[in-house]
Design goal:
343 residues, 2% helix, 26 strands, single chain, four-stranded antiparallel beta sheet, mainly beta, disordered N terminus, 1 helix, Neuraminidase
Length: 343
């Protein structure tokens, strides 16, 4: 995959794809079908069954606001964030509750990644109200905590740093988005030591507005840092050392987070759907597109207004090893949905 650098932020996805040498036919697919009581989403190689009430909590336990992320560990366990004292809740693949922890990480845990390092596995969390990000064991024991990057010289005080996403490059460096703060991306080495800062507040090419989620895209020979430039309703691509490479601007609402499986990327779009794009950044399908624009991207929507097969506010998305999708939504009552892959 090659990139041509646009001269303006107002570059369409058509122009970007032309620079990639790809077809500029942009499908807009969103299909829902029923088979008895089953709800089937998607098309082609991306067909999924909507699993209702997948995550089951112990009696008396409630999700609370699921304003965070979902991650999968090497055993196929599903970790998710809430804003309650159960900041990290862990389920097995069948939705059975296993454990919860993290009272010190309540009310602000947001981006989360699980990473195998040698023979041990760790979870990395960003917390916008603590103005910190941290490396923890899968049982919640703290390995280290980092605050705002003073070396960047873009902050006057710690409270200005409000991180929302974290992503790892193949060599071990990682990137943290300041999505609720000053709209920069900060790069660190595997020990959590600061390297550089890139991006800046704005809407021009290479500038960011509420850079929410982040992912290191390995679909091409040279990996790229993919940023959900949510406030600008677009995706932006940067080199591993922070140089602007290109963008996608069409057929997006409020992209919030990503996951990659092979040559495809799933996008959690806060305004009521999950979108899957191919290696040329063309839309393959939209999943669970909410048919009521008034409900898209809303938080205090009570369960009696939820519609099976339709999302309200997808905030994070993850594939497991079998290709099933798990979607966490920004909802005050809490909602996490499993989409079981059929093809």
């Amino acid at each position: 995959m090659t990139f041509n650098k646009p001269q303006s932020a107002k570059v369409s996805r058509r122009a970007f794809l032309t620079g990639l040498g790809a077809s500029v036919v942009i499908p807009r697919l969103s299909s829902v079908s029923s088979s008895g009581s089953r709800i089937i989403l998607g098309s082609g190689n991306h067909r999924y069954e909507w699993i209702s009430n997948w995550a089951r909590l112990p009696e008396g336990m409630r999700f609370g606001n699921t304003h965070g992320a979902v991650a999968i560990d090497s055993k196929g366990r599903v970790l998710m964030n809430t804003d309650t004292e159960n900041a990290v809740i862990i389920f097995d693949a069948e939705g059975r509750f296993l454990k919860a922890w993290g009272s010190e990480w309540k009310d602000g845990s947001h981006g989360m990644q699980v990473r195998m390092e040698g023979k041990a596995e760790f979870v990395y969390i960003t917390h916008f109200n603590r103005h910190e990000f941290a490396k923890l064991t899968l049982d919640g024991e703290v390995v280290w905590v980092r605050g705002y990057p003073k070396e960047s010289n873009v902050y006057q005080k710690a409270e200005e740093f409000k991180p929302t996403g974290i992503a790892f490059a193949p060599g071990g460096d990682f990137y943290v988005t300041d999505g609720y703060g000053k709209s920069y991306v900060h790069q660190y080495n595997s020990r959590g030591e600061y390297i550089r800062t890139f991006g800046a507040p704005g809407s021009e090419a290479g500038q960011l507005k509420q850079p929410h989620g982040i992912w290191v895209d390995t679909r091409a020979k040279l990996p790229a840092v993919l940023v959900a430039d949510r406030g600008n309703h677009r995706l932006q691509f940067f080199s591993l050392d922070g140089k602007f490479m290109g963008m996608v601007t069409e057929d997006l609402r409020l992209p919030s987070n990503f996951d990659q499986r092979g040559s495809d990327i799933a996008i959690a779009d806060l305004q009521g759907r999950v979108t899957i794009i191919d290696r040329h950044n063309r839309v393959i399908t939209h999943l669970g597109d909410n048919q009521n624009p008034a409900l898209r991207g809303k938080n205090p929507v009570p369960p009696d207004q939820w519609v099976e097969g339709q999302f309200i506010s997808p905030h994070s998305v993850r594939w497991d090893a079998r290709g099933n999708l798990y979607v966490a939504e920004w909802l005050s009552s809490g909602r996490i949905t499993k989409l079981r892959r059929l093809t």
